[in-house]
TrEMBL record, chains A, B:
<dbReference type="InterPro" id="IPR041424">
    <property type="entry name" value="CinA_KH"/>
</dbReference>
<dbReference type="Pfam" id="PF18146">
    <property type="entry name" value="CinA_KH"/>
</dbReference>
<feature type="domain" description="MoaB/Mog">
    <location>
        <begin position="4"/>
        <end position="171"/>
    </location>
</feature>
<dbReference type="InterPro" id="IPR036653">
    <property type="entry name" value="CinA-like_C"/>
</dbReference>
<dbReference type="Pfam" id="PF02464">
    <property type="entry name" value="CinA"/>
</dbReference>
<dbReference type="InterPro" id="IPR036425">
    <property type="entry name" value="MoaB/Mog-like_dom_sf"/>
</dbReference>
<dbReference type="InterPro" id="IPR050101">
    <property type="entry name" value="CinA"/>
</dbReference>
<dbReference type="InterPro" id="IPR008136">
    <property type="entry name" value="CinA_C"/>
</dbReference>
<dbReference type="Pfam" id="PF00994">
    <property type="entry name" value="MoCF_biosynth"/>
</dbReference>
<comment type="similarity">
    <text>Belongs to the CinA family.</text>
</comment>
<protein>
    <recommendedName>
        <fullName>CinA-like protein</fullName>
    </recommendedName>
</protein>
<dbReference type="InterPro" id="IPR008135">
    <property type="entry name" value="Competence-induced_CinA"/>
</dbReference>
<dbReference type="InterPro" id="IPR001453">
    <property type="entry name" value="MoaB/Mog_dom"/>
</dbReference>
């Protein structure tokens, strides 16, 4: 089954909103073996929506429209569907009752404007939305399926998972697509490419490898297509074995794995706790660590030591060393890691101190310089990195390097098989 | 001038990568008064790239392709351009020398594979890329302009700013589009809609208002089109005055403003310093605060008190109150804010304690419950919020509420004119 996604909203065209819905839909369809061949983004304009829908239906049997079902005057998708397919809009009393009930449950009066969300184009089936006020819309005819979904991410995801995907998986079959993503850290795209020299001989039109660079590392996407699941699986495994053999411990994990999740698993497996002292990363490492549900089992906490005074009073950094070596130095990184470990009563302390920029750089310590410190009961050391980038990207890259240093440190402490 | 953006990459279709480039390009074009009418995303497939290019050229005089210019075997844009426009690919020795120089500067050998990046379709002008190895490509003919740019975000942005936008602004004229975004906090989309009741009477096809909900608040996008800048500006100001009058202090700022930037300006203007104690937000507030360059002028630092032990030892929370009231309570939120203020020697302390989920909720304190505490020399208080959402969204929403509480607190301390 071939699909085309049409995302709708002026905010997407003028760059006010990043189109996370498109990525979420792509991943969800791909996981169901539905091939997404194109994504189109158009504005809140019934003409443009209609043209996109017509174009899409000629090429794909599934068209998913996303956005423009809200209650406000710039939500035009209902109207566009009716116009484009020559259907009338009908006020569905059952949907109106559901919307009224949604507001009643939250003890708020229903704004008059929300009535338009009960309008359904003739021949469309409304998909009940229990987490918001915009119902989804589903229509099947000889040409295929047209689905319209709200653009609010959690409403979209809820309707996809509970109404749309179950209907679609009943319809698909035949061609199998299997994918696997290998997550790497601490190695650039070109270096990876060099390490994987010769991989091309394994690839053909049914087996592909894509390099996906990101601020936290390069991901490798392996895709196999075949007429049955066994063949696809087999080819995927052969390619994965080649890659694993070549890149060694630069491999962090697979699919949805992240550095923070892998570090969390290693800490759990070793029964160790972690504390963090952050200067230049400003809380970004702690933020990532606590994105993982259950982090409280191994994460004691962190200190964002942005001022030098805090480095001294809360982390016990020696003020003389701070004055002599400067805050961005090996000695201070080591003392911060030791201080985090000691004052937050953890087994391992991890610390960052660097120059995020855009100001504060010098010839000797340019913007992008960072020292990452690590301390446990046996060792305390720091490594220097140079990560020139804008401020936000620097924080992300320094966070990835810090988490990877911790990962490599923990890996040395246990047999590889436990990972 | 009408533009269509074609973003290229299998990783975009299978949802491995969120298309931030499309948003960045949309904002950049919009700021130059170029109307982006559609964004298409296709895979690394020369056929699909060619079809998208042909379709786009029929509707717009500027087509911007983005992605697929890298050195690896899945980068097919050069080949697609040559095939689609009937041009041959020529190896440009000058570009090859630049790529070789790029690697030499970094003291790394040039991988053989990077040679393909010196291939240029006949009639295209290469745009020198000083921050990466993929040159951009520019072509003008009677139908308009075709530009191809690398998909690595900082390379794309560098080439747009230094080569593409200067050329484009020389070509545009006539129709003026002006936009302004009003950033709000602490108020939902429906409530905003109610407060703005009657705004429709001001709007027409040349003046529009869009609601853009996001995890940190709803943004309002105002757009005016006119034949001259004065008229567009005048209409925009009239609409903005209406909105400002209705929503009062829920208005945080305009355009690229963020809660953390506005809070930073208020702290600077009042000569105050800030310290943060985070439990459920896990460092996300500190991370946002330190995204602002120059935050060290007012941000002392923060303590991520994930374990109860850290709340007691580093923030001075009374262990008896902690045991009696629980960590997620008014008393603990107040003591955390006071502790942050005291131990980090700041004028204002801000604290969060809540249940991010998905586990840990009870009937009395369900997932989504959060207490936000605030302390300064005169006051110490906490407010309760209920923000049901998944873990990451909860952290974002709680962070927005905390920063907004701080903003409202600071606003009361100084005359409104200073803001």
């Amino acid at each position: 089954m071939r699909a085309i996604v049409v995302t709708i909203g002026d905010e997407l065209l003028v760059g006010d909103t990043i189109n996370t819905n498109a990525a979420w839909l792509g991943a969800a369809l791909s996981a169901c073996g539905i091939e997404l061949v194109r994504i189109e983004t158009v504005g809140d304009d019934p003409e443009a929506i209609c043209q996109a829908l017509r174009r899409a239906r000629q090429e794909a049997s599934l068209v998913l429209l996303c956005g423009g079902l809200g209650p406000t005057h710039d939500d035009r998708t209902r109207e566009a569907l009716a116009m484009c397919l020559g259907r009338s809009l009908q006020l569905r009393e059952d949907i109106l009752s559901q919307i009224e009930a949604y507001f009643r449950q939250r003890q708020r009066p229903m704004p008059e404007r929300n009535r338009v969300q009960a309008l359904v184009p003739e021949g469309f089936e409304p998909l009940v939305n229990t987490v918001g006020t915009a119902p989804g819309l589903w229509m099947e005819d000889a040409q295929g399926v047209v689905v319209a979904l709200p653009g609010v991410p959690h409403e979209l995801e809820h309707l996809m998972q509970n109404a749309v995907l179950p209907r679609l998986t009943r319809r698909t079959g035949r061609r199998v697509v299997q994918q696997r993503t290998l997550i790497t850290a601490g190695i650039g795209e070109s270096a990876l490419q060099q390490q994987l020299e010769g991989v091309e001989t394994l690839l053909d039109e049914n087996l592909s490898l894509a390099y996906l660079p990101g601020p936290y590392g390069v991901r490798l996407r392996l895709t196999a297509r075949a007429h049955n699941a066994e063949t696809a699986q087999q080819r995927l495994e052969q390619l994965e074995a080649f890659v694993r053999d070549r890149i060694g411990t630069a491999l962090v994990g697979t699919n949805g794995d992240t550095l923070e999740a892998v570090v969390g698993r290693l800490l759990r497996a070793q029964g160790k706790t972690l504390a963090i002292a952050e200067s230049c990363t400003g809380g970004h490492i702690a933020d990532r660590i606590t994105d993982i549900s259950g982090a409280s089992a191994y994460f004691q906490g962190g200190i964002v030591a942005y001022s030098n005074a805090v480095k001294v009073t809360l982390l016990g950094v020696d003020p003389q060393i701070l004055a002599r070596e400067g805050a961005v130095s090996e000695a201070v990184a080591v003392q911060m890691a030791q201080g985090a470990r000691q004052y937050l009563q953890a087994d391992v302390g991890l610390a960052t101190t660097g120059i995020a920029g855009p100001t504060g750089g010098t010839a000797e310590k340019p913007v992008g310089t960072v020292w990452i410190g690590l301390a446990d009961a046996q060792n305390a050391y720091a490594r220097q990195y140079y990560l020139p980038a804008d401020r936000l990207r620097f924080k992300q890259r320094a966070t990835a390097m810090a988490l990877d240093l911790l990962r490599q440190h923990l890996l040395q402490a246990i047999p590889a098989a436990v990972v």
